[in-house]
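Backbone description:
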Amino acid sequence: MATSANRTTEQLTDAGDGVRDHLGLTVLDEQVCWDHLADEPLGRLAVQVDGSPHLVPVNHVVRNSEILFVSVAGTKLHRATHQPGAQVAFEVDGYDAATRTGWSVVVQGRIHPVDDLVEHTHQDVRGRPTWLEGYRDRQWLRIVPERVDGRRLGGGTDES
């Protein structure tokens, strides 16, 4: 199971309205992080492509504390993510410009193929349309998390 903030190397304080990091940002509880991950249809996947960092927007779903998404043969993302066990980072965020508040969740983990989906269709497992319609060589991949961290910017609560 993934762990929230690495409390052995990061200074955290309890400000009475939630745990805060060294910058004063509220640290989100791991369950709140997973709720945000599940609610947001779009995230950003960070991978290494030919030795350089590469950031790709992907639509995703959360299942059994793992992040699932689709890759298409012949793309840079496909090449980078079809190395089972490769390290990746995944991020989702949200903000409210009117209240100047927001949040960010970052997952660090390893990529693996999904072998247990019964059927690959034009709909993902929560009914959201995939962005890769028309591509026949799609493969579902999953991120097995090693670390899950979240922060709230502005405001003092974990609530959305």
Remarks:
- Residues 118-123, 156-160 have pLDDT under 50 and may be disordered.
- The first strand starts at residue 13 and ends at 14.
